[in-house]
Amino acid sequence: MKIRDAEILIVPGRGDASPLHWQSRWQDKMSTARRVEQDNWDHPACSAWTARLKSEIRVAVKPVILVAHSVGVLTVAHAARDWQAGKVAGAFLVGLSDWERPEMEQAYPGHGFAPVPLDRLGCPAFVLASSNDPACGVEKAERWAQAWSARFAVAGDTGHFDESDGFGPWPEDLMAFAQFAKIL
Question: Which of 13, 63, 82, 159 is most buried, judging by how many CB atoms fall within 10 Å of its CB?
């Protein structure tokens, strides 16, 4: 599938993606991309975030490709339980965030992202993890990818794929995303 033939839904994590973040830059480069806006970027709530994502999927007029980062990846995993069949062509999932950690419940009481669903996503998916991501260990990211029937790769010591880790423009992965879209 060509990127122009799909609606690209950008699914950021907590705090949204700044204008310099790779997701924002990708959104600016792809004419069919739009961000899934959340009412409260600072305090993610699974029920609200998944409802918004499912709503955006429902109104899409073209096949949807999801581009998620951090807790946005968990939003995708939760929404996949009952999103509209056939509407999501693929999911490109980068830099997972482990909200099953006890400190996440302390920081965001009642967030609802734990436990993470271990069901297949119902679409082709690719998970890109980092070997030194402070938000999610690579072993857990790989277990989730396997449960979701997603292809899995480790990008090396790349932190959490944020601007502070050197991920602003990130043209290499934009090319990987384009290759992923071609197989859909």
Answer: 13
The structural domain count of the chain equals 1
Q: What digits encode the pLDDT tens for the residues 30-74?
A: 999 999 999 999 999 999 999 999 999 999 999 999 999 999 999
Q: How many CA atoms lie within 13 A of 49 on its CB side?
A: 29
The overall pTM is greater than 0.90: yes
Helices 171-182 and 22-29: angle between axes, nearest 10 degrees: 60
CA angle 48, 129, 86 (to 5 degrees): 50
With beta carbons less than 8 A apart as the criterion, state whether 25 and 9 touch.
Answer: no
Domain with 178 in it? 3-182
CATH classification at residue 123: 3.40.50.1820
Please report the DSSP string for the chain in residue order: --GGGSEEEEE--TT---TTSHHHHHHHH-TTEEE---S-SSS--HHHHHHHHHHHHHH-SS-EEEEEEEHHHHHHHHHTTSSPTTTEEEEEEEEE--TTSHHHHHHSTT----SPP-S--SS-EEEEE-TT-TTS-HHHHHHHHHHTT-EEEE-SS-TTSSGGGT-SS-HHHHHHHHHHHHT-
